[in-house]
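Per your request, structure below.
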C-alpha cells in the first residue's frame, strides 16, 4: 500500500473480466452488420455492455461514455457501474468504435472498455477533437508533436532502425488531413488511410512488430483517452493537442481558459499504471478478427491488457448461445431479443 496516498494497487486482473464485457457488446452489435443503421448497432452494443459491466466487482464511475445523463439512458458520464465493492475505478467505454463501419458492413470495428484507478483517467472533454501522434516503445522518447511531420518521421525511422521509405503512417481519411498527407508523402514515408476507427489504429501503431509505425492526425478526444489506456499498458506513446474545429470553437476555448498549446502525453491522460484495457472485434480488421456466427453460437477475438504487468493477451472464444440463454440477463441471447423488440 502507498501509505502517503492511502492507495492499494489493484491485484485482480480486471482486464479478463472486461473481455466478457466487450465480447457481449461485439456480439450484440455484429448481428446488425451491414444493415445500414448505426443507431441500431450502437443501441444493441450499449445495452449489452451495460448489462455485463453491472456484474463486475467494482465501484465504477463512467468518465467517458455515451454522453451526458440527459442524452444517454445508459453508460452516461457520471453513471455508477458495478456491484459497489472495491476497487474504486474510472471507466471509459466505446461500445462500438466504428458504428458506421459496422452499419455499412466494413472492416475494423471494435468494442472497447478501459478502466483505471479512481481519479487517474483525465479527459479534456471541452476539446471535441485533438491532434494526435502515436508510436511504439522503440521510438517513444523521440516524438514531438510540435516538430514538423518530416522530423517526427525521420526520428521514428532512426529509432526503429528503418529507412524512411519503410515507415508506414496511418491517417484518418478526412479533408482536414490533406496537408498532413502531402507532408508525409513528401517526407518519403508510406501512408495507410482508414475511414474510421482510430482506437484500433492507435493500438496498431503502439504495438511493436505490426505493419504500422505511427498514427498522425486529428480525431476525437475521447478516443484519444481510450487509446492512451491501451498505449500505457503496452509502453507506447501518444501525444495530443486540442484542435478547435472553427474560430467560434477556438474563441470559446480561449474564454474558458483552455490552453490550446498544451501537449497531453500518455501519462497526462492516464496517470496510473493501474489501468486495464479490453477490446473485441466486431468486424474483422488488422487488429482483431470480427464476430463469426455458426449454428447455435459465435466465435470472437479479443485483446486484454494490464498496465502494471504490461501483459497483453489475445483471447479467442467460442460462445454457445443455448447455454448462455440458461444463465442470467448478461447473455448475448438476451440482448438479441432486446434489439429485435426495440425495432
Amino acid at each position: 500500500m502507498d501509505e502517503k496516498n492511502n492507495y492499494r494497487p489493484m491485484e485482480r486482473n480486471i482486464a479478463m473480466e472486461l473481455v466478457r464485457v466487450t465480447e457481449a457488446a461485439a456480439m450484440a452489435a455484429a448481428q446488425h452488420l451491414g444493415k445500414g443503421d448505426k443507431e441500431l448497432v450502437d443501441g444493441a452494443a450499449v445495452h449489452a455492455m451495460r448489462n455485463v459491466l453491472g456484474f463486475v466487482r467494482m465501484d465504477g464511475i463512467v468518465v467517458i461514455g455515451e454522453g451526458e445523463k440527459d442524452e444517454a439512458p445508459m453508460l452516461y458520464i457520471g453513471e455508477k457501474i458495478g456491484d459497489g465493492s472495491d476497487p474504486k475505478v474510472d471507466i471509459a467505454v466505446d461500445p462500438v468504435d466504428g458504428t458506421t463501419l459496422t452499419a455499412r458492413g466494413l472492416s475494423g470495428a471494435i468494442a472497447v472498455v478501459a478502466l483505471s484507478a479512481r481519479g487517474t483517467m483525465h479527459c479534456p472533454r471541452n476539446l471535441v477533437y485533438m491532434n494526435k501522434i502515436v508510436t511504439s516503445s522503440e521510438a517513444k522518447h523521440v516524438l514531438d508533436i510540435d516538430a514538423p511531420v518530416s522530423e517526427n518521421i525521420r526520428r521514428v525511422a532512426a529509432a526503429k532502425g528503418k529507412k524512411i521509405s519503410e515507415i508506414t503512417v496511418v491517417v484518418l481519411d478526412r479533408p482536414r488531413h490533406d496537408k498532413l498527407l502531402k507532408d508525409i508523402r513528401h517526407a518519403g514515408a508510406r501512408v495507410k488511410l482508414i475511414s474510421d476507427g482510430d482506437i484500433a489504429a492507435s493500438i496498431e501503431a503502439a504495438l511493436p512488430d505490426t505493419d504500422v509505425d505511427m498514427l498522425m492526425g486529428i480525431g476525437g478526444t475521447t478516443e484519444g483517452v481510450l487509446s492512451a489506456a491501451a498505449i500505457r499498458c503496452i509502453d507506447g506513446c501518444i501525444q495530443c493537442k486540442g484542435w478547435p474545429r472553427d474560430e467560434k470553437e477556438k474563441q470559446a476555448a480561449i474564454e474558458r481558459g483552455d490552453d490550446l498549446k498544451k501537449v497531453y502525453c500518455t501519462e497526462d491522460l492516464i496517470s496510473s499504471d493501474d489501468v486495464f484495457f479490453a477490446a473485441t472485434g466486431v468486424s474483422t480488421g488488422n487488429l482483431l478478427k470480427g464476430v463469426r456466427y455458426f449454428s447455435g453460437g459465435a466465435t470472437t477475438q479479443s485483446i486484454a491488457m494490464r498496465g502494471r504487468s504490461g501483459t497483453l493477451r489475445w483471447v479467442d472464444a467460442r460462445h454457445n448461445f443455448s447455454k448462455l440463454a440458461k444463465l442470467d440477463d448478461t447473455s448475448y441471447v438476451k440482448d438479441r431479443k432486446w434489439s429485435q423488440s426495440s425495432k
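The longest strand covers residues 88-97.

Regards,
D.
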